[in-house]
Write a structure and sequence with these properties.
The complex is a heterotrimer of chains A (277), B (328) and C (430). Chain A is 76% helix and 0% strand. Chain A has 277 residues and is mainly α. Chain A has one domain: Orthogonal Bundle (MetI-like fold). The two termini of chain B are 17 Å apart. The chains are: A mainly alpha (277), B mainly alpha (328), C alpha/beta (430).
Chain lengths: 277, 328, 430
Amino acid sequence: MSARRRVGSVLVYAFLAAYTLFTLVPIYWVFVTAVKPAEEVVAFPPTLLPRTLSLEHFAFVFTKTRLGQGIVNSLIVAGSTTVVALIAASLAGYAFSRFRFRGRGVLLGSVLGLYLIPPLISVIPLFLLFNKLGLLNSRVGLVLAYQSLVLPLLTFLLRNYFDGIPTEIEEAALLDGCTRLGVLRRVTLPLALPGLATAAIFAFILAWNEFVLALILILSDDLKTVQLVIMEFVKLYRIDWGALTAAMVVGMAPVLLFLIVAQRYLLAGLLGGATKS
Amino acid sequence: MAHDNPATTDAESRNARGGLPGAHAQRGVLPFPVFLRRAFGERWLPYWLVLPMLALLFSVTVFPFLWNVWVSLQDLRSTNILRGAPFVGLRNYWQLLHDPLFYHSLKVSLYFVVGSIVGQFTLGLLIALIFHRRPGAARLLRPVFIVPWILSAIIIGYSWIWMYDYNFGLINAGLRALGLPPVRWLNDVTMAIWALVIANIWRGTPFTMLFLEAALKNIPDELYEAAQVDGATGWQAFRHVTLPLLRPAVAINLILVTMWTFNLFDTILVMTQGGPANATLTTAMYMYNNAFKYGLFGYGAAITLVMLLINAALALLYLRTVGRATTT
Amino acid sequence: MRVWRSVRVWLGVAVLALGLVVATGGGLAQQKPVVVLWQSEGYGLEAVEGLIESITGVDLQVQEFPYGDLRSKLQTTLLAQDPGVAPDLTMVDSIWLGEFVEGGFLADLTGVVADAAGDWFPAFRDGSQWPPASGTYYGLWYDTDVRVTFYWPDLLQQAGVNPGDLLYWDTFIKACQQLKAALAAQGVGACWLDMAGGWAPDFEFFPYLWQEGGEILVERDGRLVPAFNGEAGVRALQFLVDRVRAGIDPQTQTFWGDDFAQKKWAVYPHGNWAGSESRFPGTTPRERQQTIAVLPLPVSEPGRVPVTLAGGWIMTVPAVIPSKAPERFERAKAVLQAFLRADVMTEYYGALARVPVRAGVDNAVLAEKIEFFDFYAKMASVARVRPAIPQWAQVADAIFQAMSAAVFQGVDPKTALDQAAQQVERILGQ
């Protein structure tokens, strides 16, 4: 029995090791290409470990391209998307968690339903609509459009989080003469901070990563988000893989940073969001 | 079952007390201050709270969706968009039914969706089961495994283009090292779709893994203990305890993953644009081509709505088959 | 409470950052008036940028986009009807003209270019108008390129292949087989066959269709109907299938001639840019004529005219410029007229090895600067152009689908073409 279990263990760990390799190798290949000097990037056969380390591609993408501008644009757009979505979703999530009102079930169900409608569907009408409203080629327009990606998810995440906060404290505050909004502001929101952090990280990552809406809704170079700038590195038939991989490393840095410093919140959101929504 | 209807959780009953009775709007003209107090009073508060969210969602999701339905009934294209498009009723849909490329794209989507789901589900379930049994490994590896899922489509797409590169890609380097002939992964009419499937398995497996892991956590330990008392082996416990209880979660997971995979086109747009020779032209990609390559907005809108119908049908199918909570 | 404070801080940071970006954007004052021109990647109008600037006194900014992106970018930008995001001038592929004009995206330039158009060769003069030869100009066709067969004479010699074999369909196939047998060991491909994308029909189908006397579309009862599935089309597609069956592998990834310059292929039917300095940097035309050679595309039998396909770009102005930014239109007109001067065009053709679309350019200068210039000019005289109808992208994709079906799925050429014709009929009838 124990011998069999040991064999099982070995198999399990071999599998985990293989999957770890599968997960990390493409990312490793990007990182390692980014720090190779230009000649080594296209050396044949390719080198698994860089023979020489070089930061030339990073210097290039930051000084000779629009990457810096793209990062600023993405920070503004993703940051604003997060703030707007967090405000709207926390109010709605609180209402869904704490009140029973007519239409609640229907509303909740439709918000969930919206989450399943592909964002692809709204691309054409959003383009036409924003064109009419003068929101085409503007950060405001992009922030509004991104609400369609993040709001349903955030509303559910926050409702679930509020559900997990006991109501007794709020009741005590209500008895002390606080208004409902006062309770939300002074009691519930501070208690929900971890949940808000989780929601904020999600909104930020989704907005940071998005590119299809940005591709259609942003027309001028100075408003391009970081994802669109990365696309610029790909030319018709010659791709400068050194510069492209360096830009990709920069593009995924914030997301990986969140994974490292805020792993707990991220996983809480993923697991919580997964089961409840 | 807690998962059966995700929209109503136990929190609902818990909060029944704190809630308000349904808002009964009183007819008749109210004195102004009373109206104000009513409007901002306790009774209407939840509506005010959900209003910003609803207003935003209505303007960027519901309204575009309804507009999309309207557009799909017009012959809207880039050549008449500034002048106004003629209303054509269901002609776009009728044409779609006679469009050989549409059927071709459905076939490609079928390969893409089935391939992706088989890979993602098998790997995701396996890892979830392992993680459930070995919390130590889970703590260490979970953050690593979710990396692909939180990267952008652009980065995923180019990472894999680079992996698949004929001359400088790591995969062909490996093949050459083993003395095997290199493969033109993304430029081979039979291989390209599977190359996309592999990249998509890489991207999507973490979601299924987390989803099923969370579902496993919800299975009470007592059931396993009871099974052990009855002398069940590990496999039997899995077969008769875990699997039936996991079923509803599996159904929801399959619905979500199927929809996402069927609707997915961002990495395909980055990696192959439907080529070579339409070998990776999925329905979503075909829709994108119609709207943004051919400028046929009305036709594109019709395709998205047919896609939505297919999604809904698949969701129903899953709920009817996999989702049945009864064990056989 | 801490939440609100941090939210306020973040809002403040966001506002500050926004302000900073706006401020830096506005701070860049320009002295000379700027004229922005869009072109496809590698088109190379920057070669005459200085010349135009000295003639007109504007600051000309030539911006480029990858080929496919330029079209979608123009579509979305011109749809927005916002002069703030539109360029002053743009190059459009000659096959996009109908779609863009019908959409109302391009300015009527009859008054600006009609006089100059007298020097243009008829096919290109007609193609600059929409509908063709209607008298309404939307710019002028700026250059053209022709499809020809490039080869490395030394590689042919090594394989014992007579270059003359490349002139006829049957001997072409045999030559390719012979080359493959001789060169495979050294990692050199025999004959390039482009099946890499929607442009494949331009290289592998339309020229042969025309050689055999066929047409892509014909007008019947006042409307266009498909004609490519006639006997000529079937013969042309059969030639493609025969080549594949004979072991000439269809290529699904193109490097636009770079790989020919790197001597990875012995025979390379392609656009004439494949023999230009852009692919052989640092060489003179004379040196290129001594290392590579060129022939017309093969024909089915002696006596057939080796008809080829001519592409090219039209220089035009977005409609939104005259309608919403008239002061920019004045500058755009001046720049456009400068670009159309024979000396400017001679300079550009010479630098980029383009084939002229007009008389009046200095052929003696061009013959010095462009390899095989006389040959290209002769080929241009027997070249044909594709119909620039609004549905062209769809039509071309349908034909490419037929080629793919015949090549990759073994569908019989006649069946494949008939299916495509049915689809094209629907596309045109819509």
